[in-house]
Amino acid sequence: MVDEGFGGGSAAALDRTALAMFGLVAALAAATCGRFFLMAWLGERVAADLRRDVFDHLLTLSPAYYETTRTGDILSRLTADVALLQALTGSAISMGLRNILTGGGAFAMLLFTSPKLAGIIAVVVPLVVVPMIAFGRREKRLSRTAQERVADLSDTAEETINGLRAVQAFTHEAVDRARYSVQIESSVAAALRRIGTRALLILAVILLGFGAVTFSLWVGGRDVIEGRMTGGELSAFVLYAVMLATSGASLSEVWGEVQRAAGAAERLLELLAQRPAIAAPAAPLALPSPTRGRIAFEAVTFRYPTRPDHPALDRFSLVVEPGETVALVGPSGAGKTTVLQLLLRFYDPQSGRVRLDGVDIAQVDPTALRRRLGLVPQDPVIFSATARENIRFGRPDATDAEIDAAVRAAAADFLGALPQGLDTHLGTKG
Q1: Residue closest to 303 by CA, chosen among 362, 353, 352, 349
Q2: DSSP letter (8 states) at residue 330
Q3: pLDDT digit string (tens) for 103-125?
Q4: How far apart (Å, rounded) are the C-alpha atoms in residues 183 and 186?
Q5: N or C: which end of the chain has fewer CB within 10 A?
Q6: Alpha-carbon Rg of the chain, whole angstroms?
Q7: CA dist 200 → 34, 149, 248, 252 (Å)
Protein backbone atom coordinates (compact mmCIF):
# COMPACT_ATOMS: atom_id res chain seq x y z
CA MET A 1 0.00 0.00 0.00
CA VAL A 2 2.82 2.42 0.86
CA ASP A 3 5.41 1.53 -1.79
CA GLU A 4 3.12 0.67 -4.71
CA GLY A 5 -0.05 2.58 -3.92
CA PHE A 6 1.18 5.80 -2.34
CA GLY A 7 4.77 5.84 -3.55
CA GLY A 8 4.09 4.49 -7.06
CA GLY A 9 0.84 6.43 -7.55
CA SER A 10 -1.02 3.26 -8.63
CA ALA A 11 -4.73 3.54 -7.83
CA ALA A 12 -5.31 -0.08 -8.92
CA ALA A 13 -2.68 -1.38 -6.50
CA LEU A 14 -4.23 0.72 -3.73
CA ASP A 15 -7.72 -0.63 -4.54
CA ARG A 16 -6.54 -4.27 -4.53
CA THR A 17 -4.69 -3.87 -1.24
CA ALA A 18 -7.59 -2.05 0.45
CA LEU A 19 -10.04 -4.74 -0.76
CA ALA A 20 -7.78 -7.50 0.54
CA MET A 21 -7.48 -5.75 3.89
CA PHE A 22 -11.27 -5.41 4.12
CA GLY A 23 -11.60 -9.15 3.48
CA LEU A 24 -9.17 -9.82 6.32
CA VAL A 25 -11.11 -7.48 8.61
CA ALA A 26 -14.38 -9.26 7.76
CA ALA A 27 -12.79 -12.66 8.45
CA LEU A 28 -11.40 -11.32 11.73
CA ALA A 29 -14.83 -10.02 12.77
CA ALA A 30 -16.54 -13.34 12.00
CA ALA A 31 -13.84 -15.37 13.75
CA THR A 32 -13.90 -13.09 16.81
CA CYS A 33 -17.69 -13.35 17.01
CA GLY A 34 -17.53 -17.13 16.87
CA ARG A 35 -14.66 -17.27 19.37
CA PHE A 36 -16.48 -15.05 21.85
CA PHE A 37 -19.69 -17.09 21.73
CA LEU A 38 -18.01 -20.50 21.91
CA MET A 39 -15.59 -19.58 24.67
CA ALA A 40 -18.29 -17.84 26.72
CA TRP A 41 -20.46 -20.96 26.32
CA LEU A 42 -17.53 -23.13 27.42
CA GLY A 43 -16.95 -20.92 30.48
CA GLU A 44 -20.60 -21.20 31.51
CA ARG A 45 -20.56 -24.99 31.09
CA VAL A 46 -17.32 -25.36 33.06
CA ALA A 47 -18.70 -23.19 35.89
CA ALA A 48 -21.97 -25.13 35.94
CA ASP A 49 -20.19 -28.50 36.05
CA LEU A 50 -17.80 -27.30 38.77
CA ARG A 51 -20.61 -25.95 40.93
CA ARG A 52 -22.58 -29.16 40.47
CA ASP A 53 -19.61 -31.39 41.33
CA VAL A 54 -18.58 -29.32 44.35
CA PHE A 55 -22.15 -29.14 45.67
CA ASP A 56 -22.64 -32.88 45.15
CA HIS A 57 -19.42 -33.51 47.05
CA LEU A 58 -20.42 -31.18 49.89
CA LEU A 59 -23.58 -33.23 50.44
CA THR A 60 -21.47 -36.35 51.00
CA LEU A 61 -19.42 -34.82 53.83
CA SER A 62 -20.48 -35.59 57.38
CA PRO A 63 -21.48 -32.97 60.01
CA ALA A 64 -18.05 -33.47 61.62
CA TYR A 65 -16.45 -31.66 58.67
CA TYR A 66 -18.75 -28.65 59.01
CA GLU A 67 -17.99 -28.35 62.72
CA THR A 68 -14.44 -27.30 61.92
CA THR A 69 -15.05 -25.49 58.60
CA ARG A 70 -16.57 -22.06 58.13
CA THR A 71 -19.73 -21.98 56.07
CA GLY A 72 -18.78 -18.63 54.55
CA ASP A 73 -15.50 -20.07 53.31
CA ILE A 74 -17.32 -22.95 51.61
CA LEU A 75 -19.80 -20.56 49.98
CA SER A 76 -16.92 -18.37 48.80
CA ARG A 77 -15.29 -21.35 47.10
CA LEU A 78 -18.58 -22.37 45.54
CA THR A 79 -19.23 -18.90 44.12
CA ALA A 80 -16.21 -16.56 43.91
CA ASP A 81 -13.58 -19.22 43.19
CA VAL A 82 -15.71 -20.89 40.55
CA ALA A 83 -16.37 -17.46 39.00
CA LEU A 84 -12.60 -16.93 38.63
CA LEU A 85 -12.25 -20.25 36.81
CA GLN A 86 -15.25 -19.35 34.67
CA ALA A 87 -13.58 -16.06 33.67
CA LEU A 88 -10.37 -17.93 32.89
CA THR A 89 -12.09 -20.51 30.70
CA GLY A 90 -14.60 -18.20 29.09
CA SER A 91 -12.31 -15.28 28.35
CA ALA A 92 -8.69 -15.33 29.51
CA ILE A 93 -7.66 -18.60 27.85
CA SER A 94 -9.26 -17.48 24.60
CA MET A 95 -7.47 -14.14 24.75
CA GLY A 96 -4.22 -15.89 25.57
CA LEU A 97 -4.45 -18.27 22.62
CA ARG A 98 -5.39 -15.42 20.31
CA ASN A 99 -2.40 -13.34 21.44
CA ILE A 100 -0.04 -16.30 21.12
CA LEU A 101 -1.26 -16.84 17.56
CA THR A 102 -1.09 -13.13 16.76
CA GLY A 103 2.34 -12.76 18.31
CA GLY A 104 3.70 -15.81 16.50
CA GLY A 105 2.33 -14.63 13.17
CA ALA A 106 3.64 -11.11 13.73
CA PHE A 107 7.13 -12.42 14.54
CA ALA A 108 7.11 -14.61 11.42
CA MET A 109 6.26 -11.55 9.33
CA LEU A 110 9.00 -9.60 11.12
CA LEU A 111 11.52 -12.24 10.02
CA PHE A 112 10.15 -12.07 6.49
CA THR A 113 10.34 -8.27 6.42
CA SER A 114 13.72 -7.72 8.13
CA PRO A 115 15.68 -10.54 9.80
CA LYS A 116 18.10 -8.02 11.32
CA LEU A 117 15.40 -6.00 13.08
CA ALA A 118 13.55 -9.20 14.02
CA GLY A 119 16.75 -10.35 15.76
CA ILE A 120 16.68 -7.21 17.93
CA ILE A 121 13.12 -8.04 18.98
CA ALA A 122 14.05 -11.69 19.65
CA VAL A 123 16.78 -10.67 22.10
CA VAL A 124 14.15 -8.95 24.27
CA VAL A 125 11.69 -11.88 24.37
CA PRO A 126 13.52 -13.83 27.14
CA LEU A 127 13.72 -10.62 29.17
CA VAL A 128 9.92 -10.41 28.99
CA VAL A 129 9.33 -14.07 29.94
CA VAL A 130 11.44 -13.94 33.12
CA PRO A 131 9.36 -11.29 34.93
CA MET A 132 6.15 -12.99 33.80
CA ILE A 133 7.21 -16.19 35.56
CA ALA A 134 8.61 -14.44 38.65
CA PHE A 135 5.69 -12.06 39.13
CA GLY A 136 3.20 -14.79 38.22
CA ARG A 137 4.25 -17.02 41.11
CA ARG A 138 3.96 -14.13 43.53
CA GLU A 139 0.54 -13.19 42.19
CA LYS A 140 -0.70 -16.76 42.60
CA ARG A 141 0.23 -16.67 46.28
CA LEU A 142 -1.21 -13.19 46.84
CA SER A 143 -4.36 -14.08 44.92
CA ARG A 144 -5.04 -17.03 47.21
CA THR A 145 -4.58 -14.79 50.25
CA ALA A 146 -6.99 -12.23 48.76
CA GLN A 147 -9.59 -14.94 48.12
CA GLU A 148 -9.27 -16.13 51.72
CA ARG A 149 -9.96 -12.60 52.95
CA VAL A 150 -13.08 -12.51 50.77
CA ALA A 151 -14.08 -15.83 52.36
CA ASP A 152 -13.69 -14.18 55.79
CA LEU A 153 -16.18 -11.52 54.70
CA SER A 154 -18.66 -14.14 53.51
CA ASP A 155 -18.32 -16.08 56.75
CA THR A 156 -18.87 -13.02 58.96
CA ALA A 157 -21.85 -11.80 56.93
CA GLU A 158 -23.45 -15.27 56.88
CA GLU A 159 -22.96 -15.75 60.63
CA THR A 160 -24.23 -12.29 61.55
CA ILE A 161 -27.31 -12.40 59.33
CA ASN A 162 -28.25 -15.89 60.52
CA GLY A 163 -27.99 -14.68 64.11
CA LEU A 164 -29.53 -11.27 63.48
CA ARG A 165 -32.16 -11.64 66.23
CA ALA A 166 -29.43 -12.25 68.82
CA VAL A 167 -27.30 -9.43 67.38
CA GLN A 168 -30.13 -6.92 67.69
CA ALA A 169 -31.38 -8.26 71.03
CA PHE A 170 -27.95 -7.74 72.58
CA THR A 171 -27.40 -4.42 70.71
CA HIS A 172 -24.26 -5.89 69.18
CA GLU A 173 -24.61 -4.02 65.86
CA ALA A 174 -21.77 -1.55 66.50
CA VAL A 175 -19.30 -4.34 67.33
CA ASP A 176 -20.29 -6.33 64.23
CA ARG A 177 -20.04 -3.25 62.02
CA ALA A 178 -16.54 -2.55 63.32
CA ARG A 179 -15.43 -6.16 62.88
CA TYR A 180 -16.80 -6.30 59.33
CA SER A 181 -15.16 -2.96 58.49
CA VAL A 182 -11.77 -4.25 59.69
CA GLN A 183 -12.17 -7.38 57.57
CA ILE A 184 -13.11 -5.27 54.53
CA GLU A 185 -9.94 -3.21 54.90
CA SER A 186 -7.91 -6.41 55.28
CA SER A 187 -9.53 -7.75 52.09
CA VAL A 188 -8.78 -4.51 50.22
CA ALA A 189 -5.15 -4.55 51.42
CA ALA A 190 -4.70 -8.14 50.23
CA ALA A 191 -6.26 -7.28 46.86
CA LEU A 192 -4.05 -4.20 46.48
CA ARG A 193 -0.91 -6.28 47.09
CA ARG A 194 -2.00 -8.58 44.26
CA ILE A 195 -2.89 -5.63 42.04
CA GLY A 196 0.50 -4.02 42.73
CA THR A 197 2.27 -7.17 41.59
CA ARG A 198 0.17 -7.27 38.41
CA ALA A 199 0.90 -3.57 37.75
CA LEU A 200 4.66 -4.12 38.06
CA LEU A 201 4.45 -7.05 35.64
CA ILE A 202 2.58 -4.94 33.08
CA LEU A 203 5.13 -2.15 33.54
CA ALA A 204 8.05 -4.51 32.88
CA VAL A 205 6.46 -6.14 29.83
CA ILE A 206 5.38 -2.89 28.15
CA LEU A 207 8.66 -1.14 28.93
CA LEU A 208 10.74 -3.96 27.47
CA GLY A 209 8.41 -4.80 24.58
CA PHE A 210 7.73 -1.33 23.28
CA GLY A 211 11.27 -0.27 24.15
CA ALA A 212 12.49 -2.92 21.72
CA VAL A 213 10.03 -1.66 19.09
CA THR A 214 11.29 1.91 19.52
CA PHE A 215 14.91 0.80 19.23
CA SER A 216 14.08 -1.26 16.11
CA LEU A 217 12.31 1.75 14.60
CA TRP A 218 15.42 3.85 15.19
CA VAL A 219 17.66 1.24 13.56
CA GLY A 220 15.21 0.75 10.69
CA GLY A 221 14.89 4.50 10.17
CA ARG A 222 18.64 4.76 9.64
CA ASP A 223 18.41 1.88 7.12
CA VAL A 224 15.69 3.78 5.21
CA ILE A 225 17.80 6.93 5.21
CA GLU A 226 20.78 4.99 3.88
CA GLY A 227 18.66 3.18 1.25
CA ARG A 228 18.96 -0.35 2.67
CA MET A 229 15.21 -0.51 3.37
CA THR A 230 12.09 1.08 1.85
CA GLY A 231 9.58 3.17 3.74
CA GLY A 232 6.87 0.57 3.09
CA GLU A 233 9.00 -2.22 4.54
CA LEU A 234 9.68 -0.15 7.64
CA SER A 235 5.97 0.71 7.97
CA ALA A 236 5.06 -3.00 7.73
CA PHE A 237 7.79 -3.87 10.22
CA VAL A 238 6.51 -1.29 12.72
CA LEU A 239 2.96 -2.62 12.31
CA TYR A 240 4.07 -6.19 12.99
CA ALA A 241 6.30 -5.12 15.89
CA VAL A 242 3.45 -3.22 17.52
CA MET A 243 1.20 -6.27 17.09
CA LEU A 244 3.89 -8.44 18.70
CA ALA A 245 4.43 -6.03 21.60
CA THR A 246 0.69 -5.62 22.16
CA SER A 247 0.27 -9.39 22.19
CA GLY A 248 3.06 -9.68 24.76
CA ALA A 249 1.46 -7.04 26.98
CA SER A 250 -1.91 -8.79 26.73
CA LEU A 251 -0.28 -12.13 27.52
CA SER A 252 1.16 -10.67 30.72
CA GLU A 253 -2.37 -9.76 31.84
CA VAL A 254 -3.67 -13.19 30.83
CA TRP A 255 -0.82 -14.82 32.75
CA GLY A 256 -1.88 -12.87 35.82
CA GLU A 257 -5.45 -14.17 35.39
CA VAL A 258 -4.09 -17.71 35.04
CA GLN A 259 -2.19 -17.38 38.32
CA ARG A 260 -5.22 -15.89 40.04
CA ALA A 261 -7.40 -18.74 38.82
CA ALA A 262 -4.72 -21.23 39.90
CA GLY A 263 -5.19 -20.02 43.48
CA ALA A 264 -8.94 -20.56 43.14
CA ALA A 265 -8.40 -24.02 41.66
CA GLU A 266 -6.20 -25.01 44.61
CA ARG A 267 -8.96 -24.03 47.05
CA LEU A 268 -11.55 -26.01 45.09
CA LEU A 269 -9.28 -29.04 44.83
CA GLU A 270 -8.72 -28.92 48.59
CA LEU A 271 -12.49 -29.06 49.05
CA LEU A 272 -12.94 -31.89 46.57
CA ALA A 273 -10.09 -33.82 48.21
CA GLN A 274 -11.98 -34.01 51.50
CA ARG A 275 -13.13 -37.58 52.10
CA PRO A 276 -16.44 -38.24 53.90
CA ALA A 277 -15.83 -39.41 57.47
CA ILE A 278 -19.06 -41.41 57.25
CA ALA A 279 -19.29 -43.61 54.17
CA ALA A 280 -20.97 -46.84 53.12
CA PRO A 281 -18.79 -49.93 53.69
CA ALA A 282 -17.54 -51.86 50.66
CA ALA A 283 -20.08 -54.64 51.35
CA PRO A 284 -22.90 -53.04 53.37
CA LEU A 285 -25.21 -55.24 55.43
CA ALA A 286 -28.95 -55.11 54.81
CA LEU A 287 -31.33 -54.21 57.61
CA PRO A 288 -34.15 -56.67 58.33
CA SER A 289 -37.36 -55.94 56.46
CA PRO A 290 -39.80 -54.98 57.81
CA THR A 291 -38.04 -52.94 60.47
CA ARG A 292 -38.88 -54.02 64.02
CA GLY A 293 -37.25 -51.00 65.64
CA ARG A 294 -35.04 -52.49 68.34
CA ILE A 295 -32.31 -49.99 69.16
CA ALA A 296 -29.26 -50.88 71.24
CA PHE A 297 -26.31 -48.76 72.36
CA GLU A 298 -23.52 -51.00 73.65
CA ALA A 299 -20.87 -49.28 75.82
CA VAL A 300 -20.65 -46.33 73.44
CA THR A 301 -17.98 -43.68 73.98
CA PHE A 302 -17.98 -40.64 71.73
CA ARG A 303 -16.08 -37.34 71.55
CA TYR A 304 -16.91 -34.51 69.16
CA PRO A 305 -14.06 -33.44 66.84
CA THR A 306 -14.03 -29.96 68.37
CA ARG A 307 -13.84 -31.35 71.93
CA PRO A 308 -11.53 -34.40 71.73
CA ASP A 309 -10.71 -34.35 75.45
CA HIS A 310 -14.29 -34.33 76.72
CA PRO A 311 -16.49 -37.37 76.00
CA ALA A 312 -20.09 -36.50 75.18
CA LEU A 313 -20.96 -40.14 75.96
CA ASP A 314 -18.79 -42.39 78.13
CA ARG A 315 -19.51 -46.17 77.99
CA PHE A 316 -23.19 -45.38 77.37
CA SER A 317 -25.58 -48.35 77.03
CA LEU A 318 -29.27 -48.30 76.21
CA VAL A 319 -31.85 -50.71 74.76
CA VAL A 320 -35.16 -49.57 73.29
CA GLU A 321 -37.49 -52.44 72.48
CA PRO A 322 -39.99 -52.33 69.57
CA GLY A 323 -43.10 -50.38 70.54
CA GLU A 324 -41.42 -48.86 73.57
CA THR A 325 -41.38 -45.10 74.17
CA VAL A 326 -38.27 -43.74 75.84
CA ALA A 327 -37.56 -40.16 76.93
CA LEU A 328 -33.96 -39.03 77.46
CA VAL A 329 -33.91 -36.41 80.21
CA GLY A 330 -30.94 -34.44 81.45
CA PRO A 331 -29.28 -31.04 81.58
CA SER A 332 -27.89 -29.28 78.54
CA GLY A 333 -24.75 -31.03 77.33
CA ALA A 334 -25.65 -34.37 78.93
CA GLY A 335 -25.59 -36.09 75.53
CA LYS A 336 -29.27 -36.36 74.60
CA THR A 337 -28.79 -34.93 71.09
CA THR A 338 -25.58 -36.93 70.70
CA VAL A 339 -27.55 -40.18 71.08
CA LEU A 340 -29.75 -39.23 68.12
CA GLN A 341 -26.74 -38.01 66.10
CA LEU A 342 -25.08 -41.42 66.55
CA LEU A 343 -28.30 -43.28 65.77
CA LEU A 344 -28.59 -41.38 62.49
CA ARG A 345 -24.88 -42.11 61.95
CA PHE A 346 -23.86 -38.52 61.53
CA TYR A 347 -20.85 -39.64 63.56
CA ASP A 348 -19.25 -42.97 64.48
CA PRO A 349 -18.37 -43.63 68.15
CA GLN A 350 -14.74 -44.03 69.16
CA SER A 351 -15.69 -47.27 70.92
CA GLY A 352 -18.78 -49.41 71.36
CA ARG A 353 -21.55 -50.23 68.90
CA VAL A 354 -24.97 -48.97 67.91
CA ARG A 355 -27.34 -51.62 66.58
CA LEU A 356 -30.70 -51.45 64.83
CA ASP A 357 -32.59 -54.75 64.84
CA GLY A 358 -29.35 -56.49 65.79
CA VAL A 359 -27.31 -55.05 62.90
CA ASP A 360 -24.29 -52.83 63.63
CA ILE A 361 -25.21 -49.59 61.85
CA ALA A 362 -21.52 -48.98 61.03
CA GLN A 363 -21.89 -51.89 58.58
CA VAL A 364 -24.98 -50.39 56.92
CA ASP A 365 -25.20 -47.89 54.08
CA PRO A 366 -26.00 -44.56 55.86
CA THR A 367 -28.66 -43.71 53.27
CA ALA A 368 -30.44 -47.06 53.80
CA LEU A 369 -30.26 -46.56 57.58
CA ARG A 370 -31.70 -43.05 57.54
CA ARG A 371 -34.57 -44.13 55.30
CA ARG A 372 -35.72 -46.40 58.17
CA LEU A 373 -35.78 -43.57 60.72
CA GLY A 374 -38.22 -40.73 61.18
CA LEU A 375 -37.00 -37.49 62.75
CA VAL A 376 -38.98 -34.61 64.25
CA PRO A 377 -36.29 -32.07 65.30
CA GLN A 378 -36.66 -29.65 68.18
CA ASP A 379 -35.79 -26.74 65.85
CA PRO A 380 -37.40 -27.58 62.50
CA VAL A 381 -35.84 -26.18 59.34
CA ILE A 382 -38.19 -24.37 56.96
CA PHE A 383 -36.80 -24.53 53.44
CA SER A 384 -37.42 -21.90 50.78
CA ALA A 385 -40.32 -23.77 49.17
CA THR A 386 -44.08 -24.22 49.54
CA ALA A 387 -45.64 -25.77 52.64
CA ARG A 388 -46.48 -28.83 50.53
CA GLU A 389 -42.85 -29.25 49.43
CA ASN A 390 -41.61 -28.84 53.01
CA ILE A 391 -43.98 -31.55 54.23
CA ARG A 392 -42.90 -33.80 51.36
CA PHE A 393 -39.21 -33.21 52.13
CA GLY A 394 -38.60 -36.62 53.72
CA ARG A 395 -40.57 -38.45 51.02
CA PRO A 396 -40.45 -36.62 47.67
CA ASP A 397 -42.79 -39.23 46.16
CA ALA A 398 -45.56 -38.73 48.74
CA THR A 399 -49.03 -38.21 47.24
CA ASP A 400 -51.29 -35.28 48.02
CA ALA A 401 -53.54 -37.60 50.03
CA GLU A 402 -50.58 -38.69 52.16
CA ILE A 403 -49.60 -35.07 52.67
CA ASP A 404 -53.13 -34.22 53.85
CA ALA A 405 -52.99 -37.17 56.26
CA ALA A 406 -49.64 -35.94 57.61
CA VAL A 407 -51.08 -32.44 58.12
CA ARG A 408 -53.98 -33.84 60.14
CA ALA A 409 -51.71 -36.13 62.18
CA ALA A 410 -49.47 -33.18 63.06
CA ALA A 411 -52.46 -30.99 63.95
CA ALA A 412 -51.25 -28.51 61.32
CA ASP A 413 -54.68 -27.77 59.85
CA PHE A 414 -53.89 -24.07 60.20
CA LEU A 415 -51.84 -24.40 57.02
CA GLY A 416 -55.10 -24.53 55.08
CA ALA A 417 -55.85 -20.98 56.23
CA LEU A 418 -52.73 -19.61 54.55
CA PRO A 419 -53.29 -17.43 51.43
CA GLN A 420 -52.56 -20.28 48.99
CA GLY A 421 -53.10 -23.12 51.44
CA LEU A 422 -50.42 -25.77 51.22
CA ASP A 423 -49.04 -24.06 48.12
CA THR A 424 -48.07 -20.95 50.13
CA HIS A 425 -44.36 -20.22 49.87
CA LEU A 426 -42.48 -20.48 53.16
CA GLY A 427 -38.96 -19.50 54.15
CA THR A 428 -36.89 -17.01 52.17
CA LYS A 429 -38.05 -16.47 48.62
CA GLY A 430 -35.24 -15.80 46.17
Answers
A1: 349
A2: -
A3: 888 888 878 877 877 777 777 76
A4: 5
A5: C
A6: 33
A7: 33, 23, 15, 10
